[in-house]
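Homework help thread (please don't just give me the answer)

Our assignment gives two proteins as sequence + structure token strings and asks us to describe the second one. The first is just a warm-up. Here they are:
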Amino acid sequence: MSNPDDFDKLICRYIIKGTLTNITQLHIGKGGSETEFSVDNPIITVRIKNDEIPYIPGSSLKGILRSEVEKFLKGQGEKICVPYDPESKCNNGEIRDICLACQIFGCQQIGSHFIASDAILKMDHHPGVKIKPGIAINRITGSTQKGAFFQIETLQPGGLFDFEFEIFNIDLKTNDKNEKKARAIKFLLKELRDGWIQVGGKKSTGFGRIQFNRINGKLDVKVIEIRSEYFETLEFPEYNLDELLG
């Protein structure tokens, strides 16, 4: 198992970049009514030049991806820490004792080996925004909760987002079956390839499914692989993600 505190030297780095799409409605709210339509929870946007562009925050992406990795590792029998537990070795102990999820995504003890940037919607592939009304149901009576009508903005299916992940010093090409961090990340990438990851709100009603985009059947995702042995020529291989995942 690689040293989790190995930021002092570059062994390998993978830059994975391309486009992903929302295959169902997407709602990541900004948490306040700031639109002319009196929407209770508009979608989050970033201002670029004169445009308000929907995006998926890197923090939202990383959070849901970490949750998926934690489920995978627990299914493999690994013990994963409870976040913010002051008694956890991941927050107060030896670095080599921290759990595998924290070794990948970071904690109070060490930085993250997995970096997720904001995924910005491509404006020429904007599928449009709609207002979705909703009503809260009283779980005791089963009837409509008085005064609980609300409206949210949703991005319609088919948006195209530019994304970029960086994976530092976790060798995704290793054949070592004990390298569970590499296996967990490859599982995660396959989940994204196959459309099984959800991000944002209203997931219980099917919102937020995202998937790596394909063009003519080929993943629109490339991998740039940087290793110390390539430093002499500074020529770094670039290939399609399918070649890495098999």
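The one we have to describe:
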Amino acid sequence: MEGLLESRQHRDHNTNPLIIWEPLPGSCNFVNRLTHLQACRRLNVFSPDHLELAALLSRPESGSGCADSRSEIEIRGKQLLDLLDLDTNSSLTIVIRAAEHGYLVLSQPGQASWLPSFYQPASSKVVDATGAGNASLGALSLELQKTGDVQEATSFGTTAARFALEQVGLSVLSSATVGGQEVEMGHGSGFQARVNEYKQRFKARVIA
């Protein structure tokens, strides 16, 4: 992180870029916990999945540390916040991708909420989960740059994940005219229409 910021400074680029980190699964273990915490303090968004988070926080002798329930994931998320000990000026938000549970978004202590997943695992729409996390964070990063609102950006992220889940490989895109404008379509609907559908069906659930 220091090298990246120094390189940007030498090239007269913005020295406060938006930085989102999806950690490498194999690096998420208790041995690397300290270096991950140090890196997090330079980030805008840290987004492990719930299994990576459990592995990062669990000592090897305690077992896999696999956190499968919402309550367990919340405990892990709050534990990470406590370890980071963020001040009120911190720009870091933690977005935990938790499969069928959805997304747990945490910033300052006491500020946490769940955004549900579009599909449950038994849904016939779920064909292949490969790449869903990457698609999600790609859409999240674009919307976060536009709005600065992490919850809004996460809604876009879960919508992008929905597209990725619905087929093996990349989505087949087409176009259609909607309201006099040409709209890019995937699986019969446009991206913004799916975002609107998601917002109408689901609301973020704030937790203590």
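TA reply:
I won't write it for you, but here's a hint about the kind of observation we're looking for: The chain has a mean pLDDT of 81.
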